[in-house]
Write a structure and sequence with these properties.
Keywords: Membrane, Transmembrane, Transmembrane helix
Number of domains: 1
Radius of gyration: 27 Å
Helix content: 25-40%
CATH topology: Immunoglobulin-like
CATH architecture: Sandwich
Shape: elongated
CATH superfamily: Immunoglobulins
Structural class: alpha+beta
Strand content: 15-25%
């Protein structure tokens, strides 16, 4: 019987850590991308994402997809708290500061007219190729960079996943033995009184 109790107490830290969930959020342009996952690396499918401002007001709610991802437009330039809720009371949260949220509002003109520059020979200005405005060029570069960086950020999030290591297991076992020792101390004092 004592062996069963010992094995049960030994497995408690593993059971507790196996239910931990995490959320990773990144800002890309005017959007925030989140990835939610369990400590074993499994994706949180159908988890509820809630976004709160600094005052604690709920700004929006969403559901993670089959990859545990959810993205949304930045609702407000403020410190944001992003919470993921999964079944049976599992919860994780992350914060994004207002400094990380850039005001990227690019106005694209409806009609682009090439600028006449006296330093550029007249032959270049007569070409049939349209001249790309710097605003449009910046936006195109940002879109391509967002696509490429999204993959890199996903890989970084997977590396950041909290895995159970030996130090945590041994620490959990020590914590359990400490609690058992305190309980034994109080029980022995009650018997002596």
């Amino acid at each position: 019987m004592k062996i069963k109790k010992f094995i049960f107490l030994f497995l408690i830290p593993c059971i507790i850590f196996s239910h931990k969930i995490n959320i990773f959020a990144t800002v890309e342009g005017n959007k925030i991308f989140t990835q939610s996952y369990a400590s074993d690396g499994g994706k949180i499918k159908g988890g509820t994402i809630e976004v709160y401002d600094k005052a604690g007001n709920k700004l929006l709610t969403g559901i993670t997809d089959s990859l545990g991802e959810f993205s949304f437009n930045i609702p407000k330039k403020d410190d944001l708290k992003i919470v993921v809720l999964s079944g049976m009371g599992h919860r994780a949260e992350t914060f994004i500061s207002a400094e990380d949220l850039l005001d990227i509002k690019v106005e694209v003109p409806e009609k682009i007219e090439p600028k006449k520059n006296k330093e550029i020979p007249e032959i270049v200005n007569r070409q049939n190729n349209p001249v790309i405005d710097t605003i449009i060029l910046k936006r195109m570069i940002e879109n391509v960079m967002d696509e490429k960086l999204h993959t890199v950020i996903r890989m970084l999030a997977e590396e950041k996943e909290d895995k159970i290591n030996l130090n945590e297991v041994i620490g959990g076992i020590g914590y359990i033995f400490g609690i058992i020792g305190i309980i034994s101390l109080f029980m022995s004092r009650k018997k002596n009184v």
